[in-house]
């Protein structure tokens, strides 16, 4: 706020741009329904006459801003699921069987490395590609993620062209 006597005041209001369905912590979705606390909002693109299947991406990140960004980026092309911690990621993978998983490594409850190990330990989920999307970019971080079972590694800040290249390599065209 800036104010001068006899001249008036200037107020600045900053509002975050948040995708209304990207919250994995129980906030209402676009349809006005609320997801119970601890549940993960599942967002699937509606089926169309051109496609009877939806390619689904599970986005796992504890940062709401990062989830929002990825949902906005991916939703025009894919069905999107979101999880805010590693345990929910494992649960969502078992329940929804996404086509690919984008996994942060620094996660609460269960870190990304362990979530990857647990997902890859389940025979029915082993073939799901897991792409690590993280700020942990040292060579030991990459090696540890690879040893856990990740299929690709992308560094934050995320290069959108690289992300879509990786998605195309694993999923084909959206």
What keyword list fits this structure?
single chain; 174 residues; alpha/beta; Rossmann fold; 6-stranded mixed β-sheet; two-stranded antiparallel ribbon; 5 helices; 8 strands; 18% strand; elongated
Walk me through the structure.
The protein has five helices and eight strands; from the N terminus they run ββββαβαβαβαβα. It starts with a strand and ends with a helix. It has a six-stranded mixed β-sheet with strand order 3-5-4-6-7-8, with helices on both faces. Residues 15-52 have low confidence and may be disordered. It has a single domain (19-171), classed as Rossmann fold. By secondary structure, the chain is α/β, with parallel strands linked by helices.
Brief rundown of the structure:
With 174 residues, this protein is α/β, with parallel strands linked by helices. It is 31% helix and 18% strand.
Write the layout of secondary structure elements.
Layout: E1 2-4, E2 8-10, E3 42-43, E4 56-60, H1 64-74, E5 79-83, H2 86-96, E6 100-103, H3 112-121, E7 130-134, H4 139-148, E8 152-155, H5 160-171
Helix pairs in contact: 2-3
Mean pLDDT: 79
What's the structural domain tally? 1
Instruction: Characterize the biggest β-sheet.
Output: 6 strands, mixed
**Order of SSEs:** EEEEHEHEHEHEH
Count of helical stretches? 5
What is the CATH level 1 assignment?
Alpha Beta
Strand order of the largest sheet: 3-5-4-6-7-8
Q: Which fold does the CATH topology refer to?
A: Rossmann fold
> How many strands appear in the DSSP assignment?
8
| Cα-based radius of gyration, to the nearest Å | 18 Å
Which class do the helix and strand fractions yield?
alpha/beta
Shape, principal axes of CA atoms:
elongated
Question: At CATH's second level, what is the architecture?
Answer: 3-Layer(aba) Sandwich
Poorly predicted residue ranges: 15-52
State the helical fraction: 25-40%
Distance between the termini: 46 Å
Please state roughly what percent of the residues sit in beta strands, choosing from under 5%, 5-15%, 15-25%, 25-35%, 35-45% or over 45%: 15-25%
Per CATH, the superfamily is Response regulator
């Amino acid at each position: 706020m800036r104010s001068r006597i006899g001249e008036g005041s200037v107020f600045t209001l900053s509002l975050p741009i948040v995708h209304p369905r990207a919250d994995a912590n129980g906030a209402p979705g676009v349809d006005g329904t609320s997801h119970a606390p601890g549940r993960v909002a599942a967002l699937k693109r509606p089926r169309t006459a051109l496609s009877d299947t939806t390619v689904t991406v599970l986005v796992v990140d504890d940062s709401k801003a990062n989830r929002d960004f990825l949902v906005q980026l991916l939703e025009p092309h894919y069905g999107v699921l979101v999880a805010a911690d590693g345990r929910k990621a494992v649960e969502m993978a078992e329940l929804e069987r996404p086509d690919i998983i984008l996994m942060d490594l620094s996660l609460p409850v269960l870190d990304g490395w362990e979530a990857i190990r647990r997902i890859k330990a389940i025979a029915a989920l082993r073939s799901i590609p897991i792409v690590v999307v993280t700020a942990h970019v040292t060579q030991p971080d990459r090696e540890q993620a690879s040893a856990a079972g990740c299929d690709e590694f992308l560094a934050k800040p995320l290069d959108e062209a690289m992300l879509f290249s990786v998605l195309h390599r694993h999923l084909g065209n959206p």
